Amino acid sequence: MENPLPSPSLDLICYALKQARCLIWHADVCLASEDERQASPTFRNTWEITLLNEATAERWLSVTRHPGNSFATDLLLARSSTARAEGDALFAEAFREGKERCSREFPLTLADGSQLWLHEDVRLEQIEPRRWRLVGIFTDVTAQKLTETYLIHEAFHDPLTQLPNRSYLMNTLQKDTSQHRVLLFLDLDNFKTINDNLGHPVGDLVLVEVAKRLRLSVGSQGDVMRLGGDEFTVLMRPGSTRAEALALAAAIIRRIKEPLELSGQPLHLSTSIGITEGRSSEAETLLRNADIAMYAAKNQGRGCACVFDETMEQDIRTRFELENALRVAIEWEMITLEYQPVVLLESQAVIGLEALARWHHPTLGTIPPDQFIPIAEETGLIIALGFQLLRRVCRNAIQWHRFNPELAIALNISVAQLQSATFADDVLEILRETGLPPEKLVLEVTESILAQDREYVLLQVQKLYDAGVALALDDFGTGYSSLSALGDLPIHALKIDRSFIWNATDSLPVRAKRHQALIRAMASAARALDLLVVAEGIETAEQMAIAQEMGCQLGQGYYFKRPMAEQSVEAFLCHTAHAAPHAARQAMRRLAA
């Protein structure tokens, strides 16, 4: 058996000293007198040091040895100049104040260049006015120090990206003495869609890649931090200006938009950035203002940067109130529907109805869709709201088929709904639940659905198309890539945006003729693809005539009927002309083709 334990108590102590990573020493110290210090400012105290277990300590305290030096002297030289100065100050204070004990921790550089941490605990006894006797012990605390360093790093860094975290940011700002700092607040656009559809592991890979791109973009201009989720900040170096922040934000936006493919899936990323500047001592205010500016950037269309100003606070407060009110409105089904007829232009006979969401708040009054729909999309409330309205539309359509069995019912859907992993399946389930034939439902989409997660959205749309649901491309001509959308989207109908119809009767002849030519070109392209063409926003007989002349088969607008409340539809259907069954079926066959 190796290293048998000795029995005598003194031997046990010697054995423990050999095995332990500690070094015991004692010293007699003679303090320099006042006359000696005045005669020579460099005159030092006299130390007579004895190391009790020097031989065993040399095995683990393998410092660089210098010829002619004692081991104690080389131990002193292995400390940094800072550590030596701190030790001198510690003992000077102990001698001056008559302390009986002092302790500290300091690093020691070994011969191989590695670093070792020691804890020094010293007992002091004054034996004469200028003479002291000290007993101390050095203990290796490297393992504890590494653990402490690791825990501090973890407390101030994000484990996924290894970027500093919110605690680091707040601690940096609170300790900053420059008084004025510029802060950028970044939030990835539509990141929730990536997590929901591709899974959190892919989402984590995206965050790591974004962190990498941010480091490359920022470089030495500041510190990049991850606050949590898909939120990042950049604290620019002291002295940075607003102009430099805007230039950096533009560079970040460009780099984030660079192509990215993960797990064979092409991803299109963008980020919205808020910029603010202010006193570093007001850390929470600085962060809040940057956050507010970031939301302003999202409201301006995303993928851009905004600088904070005081008016944004009221805008954010109003938006917050609307968001809370919208949650209540959805829960209590307070979002209502109005319906506008779609007619055959040649006979003005009704072939379908388009459902339009309306919100009449008891205290805020009527809130237009262009205010509450974007909020619903950004918060994810659009999913619950969309299915709530779809279920109501389908049930109403079943009831109204008593008056016109061929009546089609249309409802707008947003890209946020299509990004839901189960959207197509949920739509088909509602059709089965309500009994509405798929070909009697028309879902209207805009070209913007191709701007994000293009391939995934196309799969959802194709699934609905294959099931027989009619699909219409709404607001055609105003989007990102109108002609390519015609080729990529599996649609049945094309709805020409109202701006073209209005401008076709402009008082300026050149403007009117050009827009008429554009309508004719769009209708011609649609006919070549065997698509129905719907003219939106018809308000006069002249506009109707031009739309028909330019090749549009269907139309809707105030000229035929303003949107009407749900309870007024039955009376309207009872007293209106419906498209002849063969004409309606022909149009619907085109829709369902």
Fold and architecture overview:
The longest helix has 21 residues. The chain contains 23 helices and 22 strands. The strands form 4 sheets. It has an 8-stranded mixed beta barrel with strand order 13-14-16-17-18-19-20-21, surrounded by 6 helices. Strands 2-1-5-4-3 form a 5-stranded antiparallel sheet, sandwiched between helices. Strands 7-8-6-11-12 form a 5-stranded mixed sheet, sandwiched between helices. 46% of the residues lie in helices and 24% in strands. It starts with 8 loop residues before the first helix and ends with a helix.
Distance between the ends = 90 Å
The count of strands amounts to: 22
Strand content: 15-25%
Structural class: alpha/beta
Tally of helical runs:
23
Major beta-sheet overview: 8 strands, mixed, barrel
What's the arrangement of strands in the largest beta sheet?
Answer: 13-14-16-17-18-19-20-21
Radius of gyration: 38 Å
**Averaged pLDDT, please?**
89
Amount of helix: 40-55%
Approximate shape: elongated
Poorly predicted segments: none
